[in-house]
Amino acid sequence: MLAFARQGIFLVDYTDFILLLLYVLVPWTAINLVDYYLIQHGRYDVQSFLSPGGGIYGRINVAAVACYIIGIAVQLPFMSTTYTPASLRPR
């Protein structure tokens, strides 16, 4: 329904949304792959994942969160999007 109402700019908005997902998911995926293949070598304590306190891993991995923020910050100058707030779009 939304696609028909905004069909003139739907593809542009959809492309911007997909790019936004890429900007968010690429650093997260890189952190997971580095952790799995280079740091943990695939050995995890699965019960710790299910523990309310995070088990041996803790609740928050500060180094991973910092790397994630840095990963997004590094991408900022290279982001290419046509996003324009609705209030600034021509009618």
Give a description of the structure.
- With 91 residues, the protein is mainly α.
- The chain has one domain (11-81).
- Helix content is 58%, strand content 0%.
- It has 4 helices and no strands.
- The longest helix is centred in the N-terminal third of the chain and has 30 residues, at 10-39.
- The two termini are 20 Å apart.
- The mean pLDDT is 85.
Number of strands: 0
Can you count the helices? 4
Shape: elongated
What is the straight-line distance between the termini? 20 Å
What are the key terms here?
single chain, 91 residues, mainly alpha, 4 helices, 58% helix
Blueprint of the fold:
Elements: H1 2-5, H2 10-39, H3 46-50, H4 62-75
Helix pairs in contact: 2-4
Please sum up the structure shown.
The chain is 58% helix and 0% strand. It is mainly alpha-helical.
